[in-house]
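Translate sequence into structure tokens.
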Amino acid sequence: MKNLFKKISAILIAAVMVLAMASTAFADGNTATITLTNFANANSLKYMQIIEPDQTQPTGWKFSNDVTKTAFTGVTNKDEQTTLWMLILNKDPDATDNTELNIPEGITAITDSKIDMALSTIKSSKNANWTVVNNKNTMNVSKAGVYAFDAEENGYTYKVATAYVGFKAYDTTPTLLDTEVVAKKSQMIVTKTVDDQDNAVAIGNTVTYTITTNVPYIDANSTKRIFKITDSIEGANYVLNENGKVAGTVKLGKTTLENVVIEPSSDGKSFEINLDSLVEKENNPNAGTTVTVEYKAKITEVTAKNTATGHKNDVEYGSESVNLYTGSITLEKVDANEDNKKLANAEFTVIKDDNELKFDYDETSGVYTYNPDSVREKATTVITNSEGKVTVEGLDKG
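Result follows.
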């Protein structure tokens, strides 16, 4: 059997390999072990060879099936062998300096984003011929090349992960090298944070909330392609812009989505962000990408509760809340000479940073609540009740 490769130069990492050439042929019964990392909890796991050796081709490789070939040549708009050269250059930019490889002039490396897009297309294809993997820890293969792995797990979004099986360099009896593939998954969660680290605020304070999640993967066969984020708030009001929308930003990765608005509900206590555009394509090019929402709210009550939830089609997931609390002070006025004699109608002012704070008064509870915008007459004055006590609330720490 004539030489299959010319030389081994490196091992593939990430999406594809440094397509190196080796001066040997296959040995009968030769196998390699692929270690499957972080797939143990997957509900299902499948694999497919996507690139295999072909000694008749200039690169020494070919795509293993029409689905894979169409996916990769579709993102490069080049023929099969040119696309494979582009994959070589992606992982070995210096490959053009190796005269043994005979890479044609003018070929540039394919970008990582296009590789991810091609792999996503393969994942979503209805015609892809996957094989189920029962052992989610290791598997053996008897052929060199690139293998793709896809998994499903409740509460997670998986991207296609790949492994390259190469040869031991300069081995007189060609030996396939063991390798590893690591799951590329992101949890379908929603995290909610606020810029006030101690969660103690005052009424009237404006705080910044941040929601973080990932674009979910939606199967190509799904009749629905819905992705949205909802948010509800109690004890605070969203800060609005001049158009009456929630003043905030929505980012996909590091890119601000200019065409996405945060629309408040009619009562101003919730909003919904429609992100269907991020999942509308069947090849799921955005799956797993981080989505970040940032906005502001003004605290109006002694306790503020804010909850964010993700929605994939008809499924809610990852609901997470952040609670903010205000402080309170209770004073008791007693006679200077008799501790048991409580003094009613004693007047006080509450001062912070040399400023007299304003309070609203609730006659039912007898509690004064901090309100920097209070229009109550003598708003800076608080008065003890019949038991000689006065309680003020809605204050920040300190």
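Note: The two ends are 82 Å apart (CA to CA).
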